[in-house]
Amino acid sequence: MTKWPIRWDLLFRYRMIEIIALWEGRLTTNNLIQSFGIGRQQASKDINSYLANIAPDNLIYDKHLKGYKPSESFTPQLTLGHADEYLHVLSRTEDMMVTFDELDMGFENTTMVRPVTRNISPDILRPLVQAIRDKKRVDISYTSLRDGEEVERIISPHTLVCTPLRWHVRAYCEHSKDYRDFVLSRIRGIPDINDKIVMGKDEDKTWNTQLYIELMPDPRLTEAQAAIIANDYGMENGNLHITTNAALVRYVLDAYNIDINVLNSNPKGQQIILGNLEELRPYLAF
Fold this sequence. Notes:
The chain is an alpha+beta fold. Helix content is 32%, strand content 24%. Mean pLDDT is 85; it is low at 98-103.
């Protein structure tokens, strides 16, 4: 395999080669032409270069398909071989087609169900990004869900967090004298950057506490049903361990639709349960 570094633009095209071949079963120069706006000669050169330098045995040219298909020994070299990688390509295609309706980058018989994007202004996000990068404090006006009142807060942000349902910034709050999550869509006005940061990521004990979440099929399911659920989630021996930090535990559980406060009378409803609840409970109360 070619030694790193591979040029970024070429790396993206190599990754597209692997993803399209693996998940669509047919790769042509048109896939690269439409995806990257390159000529047919360059697209052909990229495929040949991939075969020569990255994975000589991954692709086979099929005259019937008029394109390349993955070989029986296909092994991803620059991707992980996860379905999410293909779904992300489809998602980006959908985004691009909003601007270029004639764009044809892949398999068209798919659709995406996405949550509504929270109302986040660039005027709010830019100062936070700058403050994190430059390690500065920020004055913000924030509307709390608790009482609906707009309050002034001075925070030291260290990480932007994207969950399936929202964006928030992890920051030290001088009013609370602790680290908090501030939902970006609840920040009013334009954050005002001031002097150097007071408390950074290194002092955020909860953020730096590493732990794992143990998920398993609901024990009320039948053995056959539990086996199906275990396969759905890629569990090994009926368990799925997800490594995260203590500050993100709630959001991981939300992503898996697990509500520790509700015991569904129908085990087919939630399907999976938390196996190490007592271990995680201290991090679910705030």
